[in-house]
Amino acid sequence: MTLFWRNTLTLAGAATLSLGLAHAQTPDLSDPPAIEGDVLEDHGSHTLRMGIGLAESSPQYLSSQYFADILEQRTDGRLTVNIFPNSQLGDDVQMMEMLQTGSLDMTYPSSSPATTYVEELAVFDLPFLLPNREAAIAVMQSDTAQRMLDGFEGSGIKALAFSENGYRQLTNSARPVESPEDVAGLDVSGLTIRTMENPVHLSIWQTLGANPTPMAFGELFSAMEQGVVDGQENPWSTILTSNFHEVQDYGSETRHVYTPFIMMISERTWERLAPEYQELVQEAARQSAEYEIQLATEYDDWSREQLEEKGMQITRLNDEQIAAFQEAVQPVYDEWAPRIGEDLIAEIQDIVESTSNP
Ligand code: TK8
């Protein structure tokens, strides 16, 4: 049953045009998982406002809509969620603060700006820690990750579930980048790169010889358009659905960090919900996170190909080239591993190893 399913038009349109050209399969948006379970008894009516950073065509929005559909269907319309995309209510940092004061019900930030609430989350910001998606998913589903979600308790924010933002790739408007030297620039100046508001990311780009500038995501497009920054780094799906190819000529598949998203609800809102509704919200968050990961996976390579078709010159780095980046950011580990916690890093590495193929 997909009674409330909508908002698939933009992407479906774009997808049709590319048929026959793309190598990666076009993401299938027509068929989100069926919504199962009975309609709950009447425990009052609530309309929840949810602010997100990304556009209507993003996996983040589409899965949030699925979350809304689950609540609507399972409560006969008594729990409704209004989603405000494109950072229109604020950036990740601001929206988390709005959750604390209760002026916003829900948001869906990256883990990186949320490290001010739960320091352990910074482990996700360590470069090249999670070698593949399988490992990243295992980490997000681990007890360690649940402990991080629980760590929000008392902050005014209840963290519901991890999902995929994804492997971050570098784009810029100045030159093709194949090596750390291309970032730093030998005869020319280092690239000015927008980073998320997070000290490890700042350290990564400083170490690579760039001029990092932390900035809210919502300001990024116009900052690139006006040449305030040369570039940025985000997963291909975000680069595509945010139309960054309009202002960025070059992309490099650096995969330097895998960052998750975290779906969150204000503790004030949470406390107003009946226990039955709370349980539903938690369950729906998990289901939509799973769907988000599925969509994000389907989007990843496909988005890169779409960007190439739209004229972005994308450099696929070979193992040796990736190793050069890995080596160059070693000082980031030296600086941050003791602060983030060697035990925590070892815990994550254990999970990674348990997933790697023999
Ligand atoms: C969207 C952000 C964004 C993140 C960033 O709200 O800031 O670059 O990757 O997707 O969370």
TrEMBL record:
Residues 1-24 form the signal peptide. It is found in: Cell envelope. Transmembrane segments: none annotated. The keyword DNA damage does not apply. InterPro entries: DctP_fam, TRAP_DctP, TRAP_DctP_sf. Pfam families: DctP. Keywords: Signal, Transport. Its main location: other. This is TRAP transporter substrate-binding protein. It comes from Billgrantia pellis. The lineage of its organism: Bacteria, Pseudomonadati, Pseudomonadota, Gammaproteobacteria, Oceanospirillales.
